[in-house]
Design goal:
The structure is a single chain. The chain is α+β, with helices and mostly antiparallel strands and 93 residues long. The protein has one domain. The protein is built from 5 helices and 3 strands. A hairpin with a 5-residue loop joins strand 1 and strand 2. The radius of gyration is 23 Å and the shape is elongated.
Length: 93
């Protein structure tokens, strides 16, 4: 990339009034997947430590699990309660 190519890419930017229009911005919503990717990146960058401090999960996959996340700013305890879903709720579509 030379200076003229870089200048051309700058001149091709869209008008900020169009891009930053509140109506258009309201249409852009993050998904759960994009949150997970962002969170995993943050955990990796900040070198979070994880430890399973409680595991009481029965062979059928139900019970309680507790994970401790150590971050640069403190601790987070994450409690998991897997449970059965009614068959109708478990169906997708």
């Amino acid at each position: 990339m030379n200076a003229s190519t870089a200048m051309e890419s700058v001149t091709m930017l869209r008008d900020p009034a169009v891009v930053m229009d509140p109506y258009r911005l309201g249409a852009m919503h993050q998904t759960r997947l994009s949150f997970v990717r962002t969170m995993l990146r943050k955990m990796e960058t900040e070198k979070w430590q994880t430890e399973c401090v409680q595991w009481e999960i029965a062979p059928d996959g139900f019970g309680t699990a507790v994970y401790e996340l150590r971050t640069p700013n403190g601790y987070i305890n994450w409690w998991c309660f897997p449970r059965r879903l009614p068959m109708k709720s478990a169906m997708t579509g």
